[in-house]
Design brief:
The longest helix is centred in the N-terminal third of the chain and has 17 residues. Strands 3-4-2-5-6-1-7 form a seven-stranded parallel beta sheet, sandwiched between helices. The chain starts with a strand and ends with a strand. The protein is globular and about 35 Å long. The protein is of the alpha/beta class. The protein has one domain: DNA polymerase III subunit chi (Rossmann fold), CATH 3.40.50.
Length: about 150
C-alpha cells in the first residue's frame, strides 16, 4: 500500500528555522536509510538542493550520511539522492521526502512519500493541496506532529 506522511511543523519549534528543518530532514534520512530504504530528497530548485547537500556535508562524522546530487556520486547511488524540479531521480528509490512546495506530480513513482506542513499560512495551504493530490492518487495518509529532538 502506498503511504504519504505529513509532518506538522509547529510555530516556535526548532524545525521552524531553516537549520532546524534541515536537521530534522537529516534525522528522517538517517532513520529511513537505517531501515534499508533508498531515499530521494526533492527540492524546489538547484539552489535548495545544493544547500541541503552542503548542510549534510557539515554534519559531524558520527552522524554523517552518504548522499549525492542527482547525476553525481557512485553508479548505484548513495542512500540519499538529492534533486529538484526538472531532474529525475535514480530508478532505485523507494521513498521520497518532498522539500518543495509545488504539487507532487512524481508521487505515483514512489511507494512512500514524506511531506511537511509548515507553520506559515500560505505554505499550509500548499501542503493541503498536496495532501489532496496524494489522497486522489490512492495513498494512505497520516499526519504526525514533530516531536522536539
Amino acid at each position: 500500500m502506498k503511504t504519504a506522511t505529513f509532518y506538522l511543523i509547529a510555530e516556535q519549534s526548532p524545525q521552524s528555522t531553516l537549520e532546524g528543518f534541515y536537521d530534522y530532514v537529516h534525522f528522517l534520512c538517517r532513520h529511513f536509510s537505517g531501515q534499508g530504504a533508498k531515499l530521494y530528497l526533492h527540492c524546489l530548485d538547484k539552489q535548495q538542493a545544493e544547500s541541503v547537500a552542503e548542510y549534510f556535508w557539515q554534519i559531524d562524522s558520527q552522524n554523517f550520511l552518504a548522499h549525492n546530487l542527482v547525476g553525481e556520486g557512485p553508479k548505484n547511488g548513495t542512500p540519499v539522492e538529492i534533486g529538484y524540479h526538472g531532474v529525475k531521480p535514480s530508478w532505485n528509490r523507494q521513498l521520497i521526502i518532498n522539500l518543495a512546495d509545488q504539487d507532487s506530480t512524481f508521487a505515483n513513482a514512489f511507494a512512500q512519500v514524506v511531506d511537511f506542513v509548515p507553520c506559515e499560512e500560505k505554505a499550509k495551504q500548499l501542503a493541503r493541496e498536496r495532501y489532496k493530490i496524494y489522497r486522489q492518487a490512492g495513498y494512505q495518509l497520516q499526519t504526525i506532529e514533530i516531536e522536539h529532538l
